[in-house]
Description:
The protein is an alpha+beta fold. About 30% of the residues lie in helices and about 20% in strands.
Amino acid sequence: xxxxxxxxxxxxxxxxxxxxxxxxxxxxxxxxxxxxxxxxxxxxxxxxxxxxxxxxxxxxxxxxxxxxxxxxxxxxxxxxxxxxxxxxxxxxxxxxxxxxxxxxxxxxxxxxxxxxxxxxxxxxxxxxxxxxxxxxxxxxxxxxxxxxxxxxxxxxxxxxxxxxxxxxxxxxxxxxxxxxxxxxxxxxxxxxxxxxxxxxxxxxxxxxxxxxxxxxxxxxxxxxxxxxxxxxxxxxxxxxxxxxxxxxxxxxxxxxxxxxxxxxxxxxxxxxxxxxxxxxxxxxxxxxxxxxxxxxxxxxxxxxxxxxxxxxxxxxxxxxxxxxxxxxxxxxxxxxxxxxxxxxxxxxxxxxxxxxxxxxxxxxxxxxxxxxxxxxxxxxxxxxxxxxxxxxxxxxxx
Length: 398
């Protein structure tokens, strides 16, 4: 079956107005340009790289716009992107690899692996006059770290909003100094600290730094040559610069990545951030997605069991923790580092990146942009692109 024409209404968001533009996409080509050209015209997005993959091959790889507006560098397949929280599934896969080997059990207390980890929760004394810190009634488990029910904070106050400010051992010490935001397993709250704690568990079990484990066990075997937590100067030269649109819609304003310390390369003050510090490219992500689409294998090598993938991508959140049948981010539910929406699973990042799997159709869609407005123009462009992809691919991929 061939899709000959797709008709879609694209919502275009600007600082001054909201309008709807109706466009056509021929066959399966130039879907990215069709989806975001109005946003490029209004200087709300500088560019994008998009990817559609199935189990056996790349179905579509498109580049639109600029990675560096001032230098005139266009988006390329090799353009590097900061993945932000789209990094989280990679950490969960590392945990599940060790679970497959019997070295981690999801429902074990974190203290089994990190005896020094003993955060407390605030409570009132019996007379109601004083606040004290006490051991929580529910133990923080490895599972609760990965599904955001541990009670750990987004970041500690001592990290000053930077996810790469502390080495892994120091992070655990700092997390012990501040109270949990709530008693474990009683609420859902998005937590960077929980994922950094899980990364420290990997270090203790494997006997190697987290980034070394990821490189040796996942990135290098998969052929992900540009996927890293600490990019080199050469890689940073290919990094898509983050831009936000100007008020007048006539130009771009370059903005730094707020959550990271500069310079990004060769900076001894920067440390790998498991929950949001990954950098990658579309070709690398294609191999990652194909591995998951093939049930944890790629080109004859098994990385992960199918049972582990099923566990990560099933709902892990009790209904009473939802509000209006949704989680805080608007997702239907949450697995282990995967957002679950309408039968799909994926994860978005703070500067607009997104990885999304359609299990029944057997495809994955990757959306790579760099904008500090991911819930506005970033999500508007992505939504338009995904609708075009769904019309062109989801109904026909077997």
